[in-house]
Amino acid sequence: MKFLQSKYTWIVAILLCGYGYILSCTHDDELIVGSGPNIERGNDKMGLSDSKVSYDKSHSNVGWETAYIGSTALLTGRFNSFGINAFEFDESNAAGISFDAWVWVNSVNTSEPGRDQGCLQTTFGTNTSMTTEAANIAVIKSKSVEFSKTDKGYIVKADFTFHGVTKEITAKLKYVGKAPSGDGTIEVYGFNLQFNFLAKTDFQISSNNIGDNIDVYCNAIFRKKL
Fold this sequence. Notes:
- The chain is α+β, with helices and mostly antiparallel strands and about 230 residues long.
- It is about 20% helix and about 45% strand.
- It contains 3 helices and 12 strands, in the order αβββββββαββββαβ.
- Strands 1, 2, 3, 4, 5, 6, 7, 8, 9, 10, 11 and 12 form a 12-stranded antiparallel beta sheet that branches.
- The longest helix is centred in the first third of the chain and has 26 residues, at about 1-25.
- The chain is globular, with a radius of gyration of 29 Å.
């Protein structure tokens, strides 16, 4: 009897182990659902190729910041002269987004004229008499655009030309949205673009006045006649 009881005990143990193995195998086939954000985009479209759309420079700006002397408090400023040569936007189609924009480097403005017309222009390799010379124009032109995987923004690969040198940079484009203006015959569209570049490492700037890393913040407004 003891032998039979022992034998049955082993059989039950083996069956239980087999059942547990089968249950564990079934979990391998379960679909694991990600917990990422639920990103929903609209269908807004606009661009300068449409004669009803215009760039509103008066309500747009281009700002920048860098560590003064490379390691102290931030030195911040903006540019007075800038513009957009081309801009196309399709909210639900990243491949339908493109832009081409520029600034005049000698229009740097930190609200301190003595600094802007002195050390900063020397730092950037420009002067007050320049206009379309290569040393005075910074250009950013998109190459490809993809949807951001974390929010409603867009990841942009672009060629950035500064100080006569062109490098590929990565920028983040955000569509802020649209709103009616005036008597309702105008729609206003807003966008933000942010990127950074290494002025000394990549663009041959030689100066102790600024840090190597420069952050750029662009806000662009467009107006569309309905």
